[in-house]
Amino acid sequence: MTGSPGPGLGELAAEVARLSDIAALNHLIDRYLAGLDEGLASSASTFASTSAAGSDSDSDSGSGLGSGPGSGSGFDAAWAASLFTEDVELLFPVGSHQGLIGADGFLREIMERWGRTHHHGSLASVEPDGDLAAVSWSLIASHVHFGSPLPPQPSAYFQIGGRFTGVARRTPDGWRFARLRLRIVWSTGSPPGGVTEVDARTLEAADSRP
Known about the structure:
The protein is an alpha+beta fold. 29% of the residues lie in helices and 32% in strands.
């Protein structure tokens, strides 16, 4: 009596390819979230270094990471190109952007409203289908106001909870986001100056487009 035949080499190759895509898509998500925090930290570090070099009398530099947006930035065109397609659509609570050109500046403008940030993403749902993949994950994002003391002192912050949904596309350079949308579910703390409302589309329960 013989057992059932196992999967063929073709099936195994297809499964390995699927798992490789899932790993690559999760890495894309991780790089995006980490890049937001690291890019801002790089920008703040550049600002702090410039300020220290320009003034020997600045004795408050240890109380925070600068008093305003940095003149340098960790966000640039190469960073954006490593994450997004040429026709990427970004739909966020404080604004939207279409296209790879200018995506770095769009995100920089949002992020440099803060002294520090910490983006914490959940385990992602990743569904590759050929050269497209649906992706989604939950997010808790903490945004520390400029001038807030360093840990272990309590921070002055604005925090949100929500969910990212989007579509990634396979390109010759690997997987890239073709669309990202952040829906806010809750918030606490004080928003940054000038932000009095959010895009109503980011409060919808689901994205109706394919």
